[in-house]
């Protein structure tokens, strides 16, 4: 381990600067580390030789006596300068310092005359380019503008805003631009304030909105927004992405200009200025983007390390910035070139050096750069080497044994062999990168190793190291040899019968087949010795149809893969077509279209039958319900009749006749008109008998008078059998009151009708 004071590193690096024409310039560089240290300077990558104009001071700084933007020979002192420091352990290079000449151009925007009504807004602008950025001040009537006046706002980019204009604001204005290179005056412009304050309504309007700005962190951004209208609009700011602007470092200049101090990357975004009419939703908007860049800075510096010979050294360098920085690696001040044993990964953030040796001992630098600036960090690699280590093993040879095996042999080192505890064989495919290398350990008494599980037809590289308890020897010479080629493995084969004369042979592609150029397919009748084939098929083919076969015999099908080394083992399958023929005879093919139509017809019939059945069930239930209700009513009427006092037979007969006549007529009408008995007619026929009236209202069945005697027999029948029949009309006795039966009812029909 080394202390920081022993590391060669920069304490002070040169920084970007703006130089004044014909003035001296000093670029600082201070280094620490183990002496002696040599410091040199470069400009644009070219070494600077001490001269009368430019030379190095004792502390390592560069002094330019008279800076000139353009010299007589066409050269310039402008450019990128860096400082290099070197000692016994290596060389480091400082960051690049960009040196520019201070300049100032002419004004390319001058203030313009303006006539504005009282209470309005006036805006003047000057614009000029220069290095460093010129400071612009405003004069009114040849006197500096009073910045204490709240109505006067001076913006950094050369803008003067005057709000709430009054008559005393009239005058002649001009601006003055100043930097270390020069002082310049703009043309004059007259401001005239006319009339009195108008009360006419005016929609809000944004005169000037924010510009797109690109700045660096810690700078100050001013986003301009000036609006007019009557009544005076209210100016507000927001971000287009909806994020809050915040309050820290935020200030409003004048009536609506937004100033953000000490910029950070988080301030980047699109800002929206809105002019709102007070008390309404009427508004006008304008927007501008702010891009904040951040110079590259390191999140993780590379660390100095010490590693034994033959091992791997890894340096990590992580940087951030906006835009994201590019990382470059230097070795002793020179751009590092990658090779088989030097690799860069993770967008150059990781440097790996494999199998290090004495030549790799150096100072490695990580240089991070973006458009906002650059930075560097360095680390030293120390290669550990112990005295008395063995010399490299001798006579390394490799012989091919098979397609997957190589035997490697060697001889012991020539020097310092007593402390050897073993050997390590390093193995790698010749086409693979160094990091894909793997090792096999071998005892100290063994001088050969059989390397197995290799890939056929592949080149491999081998080298040996001898190890002691204090470290490893240097690597032996590298030997490269290739494994033998081999024939492909057996393919998997499947046979499918297509029809009585055709079978299909299919197989699956597999990496287990190895390298193959294609397939060979053979087939024959089993009782014959001669094969048909080979049928040559490409390596990407996985199926083949064998046609015109005899259905009465058994066939043998054989498939093998082949390559430049020969044919592989074959896969054999047997197939018979006889069962297919018999199955075809026993089960002729169906007429699918006809079956489908029959299925459709059958399905339709089933659905119709179900609907008819459900309908019949519903009607039966309704019929039973109404029939049961009718029987209940009839039973009730019979009971009431039985409870009624008996009347003379003559009256019963007359009543029977009349009822029979009325019923016959009503039944005839029902047959003609499809209607039931007229209940009102029955009421008219029996107006004097309440019990009979109640009985007639509930009639649902007929009385059949079929007794052989003079008594009338009553029975309950369904409504369709309703009738009253008199078998033999007996001579009617005289009514006790002297009235005849005919007098009891109108003469509708003969008494014995029916």
TrEMBL record:
InterPro entries referenced in this protein's UniProt entry, alphabetically: FN3_dom (IPR003961), FN3_sf (IPR036116), Ig-like_dom (IPR007110), Ig-like_dom_sf (IPR036179), Ig-like_fold (IPR013783), Ig_I-set (IPR013098), Ig_sub (IPR003599), Ig_sub2 (IPR003598)
Segments of this protein annotated with the region Disordered: 645-754
CDD domains given in the database record: FN3 (cd00063)
Record-annotated Fibronectin type-III domain positions: 392-486, 487-583
Recorded topology in the membrane: Single-pass membrane protein
CC annotations in GO: membrane
Positions with biased composition (Polar residues): 645-654, 689-704
Pfam families reported for this sequence: fn3, I-set, Ig_3
Transmembrane spans: 606-626
Key words of the record: Disulfide bond, Glycoprotein, Immunoglobulin domain, Membrane, Repeat, Signal, Transmembrane, Transmembrane helix
GO BP annotations, alphabetical order: cell-cell adhesion
Domain Ig-like per the UniProt entry, residue ranges: 8-100, 105-192, 204-287, 295-382
Positions with biased composition (Basic and acidic residues): 663-673
Intracellular or extracellular location(s): Membrane
Family of the protein in this entry: Belongs to the immunoglobulin superfamily. DCC family.
Record-given protein name: Immunoglobulin superfamily DCC subclass member 3
């Amino acid at each position: 381990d080394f202390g920081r004071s022993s590391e060669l590193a920069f304490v002070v690096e040169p920084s970007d600067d703006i130089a004044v024409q014909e003035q001296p310039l000093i670029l600082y560089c201070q280094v620490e580390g183990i002496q002696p240290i040599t410091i040199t300077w470069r400009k644009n990558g070219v070494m600077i030789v001490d001269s009368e104009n430019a030379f190095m001071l004792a502390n390592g700084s560069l002094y330019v006596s008279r800076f000139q933007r353009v010299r007589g020979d066409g050269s310039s002192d402008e450019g990128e300068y860096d400082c290099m420091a070197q000692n016994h352990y290596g060389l480091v290079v400082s960051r690049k310092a960009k040196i520019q000449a201070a300049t100032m151009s002419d004004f390319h925007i001058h203030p313009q005359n303006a006539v504005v009504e009282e209470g309005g807004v006036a805006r003047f602008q000057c614009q000029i380019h220069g290095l460093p950025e010129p400071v612009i001040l405003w004069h009114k009537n040849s006197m500096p503008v009073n910045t204490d006046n709240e109505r006067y706002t001076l913006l950094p980019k050369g803008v003067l805003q005057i709000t709430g204009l009054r008559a005393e604001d009239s005058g002649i204005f001009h601006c003055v631009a100043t930097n270390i290179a020069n002082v310049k005056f703009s043309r004059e412009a007259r401001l005239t304030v006319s009339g009195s304050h108008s009360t006419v309504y005016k929609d809000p309007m944004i005169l000037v909105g924010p510009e797109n700005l690109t700045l660096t962190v810690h700078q100050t951004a001013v986003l301009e927004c000036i609006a007019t209208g009557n009544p005076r609009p209210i100016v507000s700011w927001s971000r287009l992405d909806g994020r809050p602007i915040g309050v820290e470092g935020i200030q409003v200049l004048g009536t609506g200009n937004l100033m953000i101090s000490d910029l950070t990357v988080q301030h980047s975004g699109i800002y929206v200025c809105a002019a709102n009419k007070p008390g309404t939703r009427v508004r006008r908007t304008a927007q501008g983007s702010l891009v904040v860049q951040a110079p590259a800075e390191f999140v993780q510096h590379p660390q100095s390390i010490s590693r034994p010979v033959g091992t791997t050294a890894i340096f990590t360098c992580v940087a951030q910035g906006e835009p994201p920085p590019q990382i470059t690696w230097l070795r002793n001040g020179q751009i590092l070139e990658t090779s088989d044993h030097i690799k860069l990964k993770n967008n150059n953030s990781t440097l790996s050096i494999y199998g290090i040796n004495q030549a790799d001992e150096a100072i490695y630098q990580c240089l991070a750069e973006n458009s906002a600036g650059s930075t560097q960090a360095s680390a030293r690699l120390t290669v550990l080497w112990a005295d008395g280590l063995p010399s490299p093993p001798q006579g390394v040879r490799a012989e091919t044994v098979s397609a997957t095996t190589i035997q490697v042999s060697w001889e012991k080192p020539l020097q310092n062999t007593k402390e050897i505890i073993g050997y390590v064989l390093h193995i790698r495919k010749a086409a693979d990168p160094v990091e894909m290398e793997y090792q096999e350990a071998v005892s100290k008494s063994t001088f050969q190793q059989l390397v197995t599980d290799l890939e056929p037809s592949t080149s491999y590289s081998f080298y040996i190291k001898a190890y002691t308890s204090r470290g490893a020897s240097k690597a032996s010479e590298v030997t490269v040899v290739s494994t033998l080629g081999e024939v492909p493995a057996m393919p998997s084969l499947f046979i499918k019968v297509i029809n009585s004369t055709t079978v299909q042979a299919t197989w699956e592609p597999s990496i287990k087949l190895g390298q193959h150029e294609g397939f060979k397919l053979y087939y024959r009748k089993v009782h014959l010795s001669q094969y048909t084939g080979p049928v040559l098929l490409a390596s990407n083919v996985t199926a083949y149809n064998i046609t015109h076969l005899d259905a009465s015999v058994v066939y043998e099908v054989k498939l093998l893969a082949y390559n430049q080394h020969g044919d592989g083992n074959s896969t054999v399958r047997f197939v018979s077509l006889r069962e297919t023929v018999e199955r075809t005879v026993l089960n002729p093919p169906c007429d699918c279209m006809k079956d489908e139509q029959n299925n459709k017809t059958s399905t339709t019939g089933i659905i119709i039958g179900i609907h008819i059945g459900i309908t019949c069930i519903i009607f039966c239930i309704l019929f039973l319900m109404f029939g049961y209700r009718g029987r209940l009513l009839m039973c009730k009427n019979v009971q009431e009749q039985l409870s009624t006092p008996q009347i003379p037979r003559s009256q019963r007969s007359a009543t029977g006749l009349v009822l029979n006549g009325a019923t016959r007529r009503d039944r005839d009408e029902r047959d003609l008109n499809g209607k039931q008995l007229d209940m009102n007619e029955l009421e008219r026929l029996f107006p004097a008998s309440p019990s009979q009236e109640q009985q007639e209202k509930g009639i649902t069945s007929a009385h059949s008078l079929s007794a052989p005697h003079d008594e009338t027999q009553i029975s309950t029948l369904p409504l369709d059998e309703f009738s009253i029949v008199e078998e033999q009309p007996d001579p009617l006795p005289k009514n006790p009151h002297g009235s005849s039966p005919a007098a009891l009812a109108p003469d509708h029909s003969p008494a014995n009708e029916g």
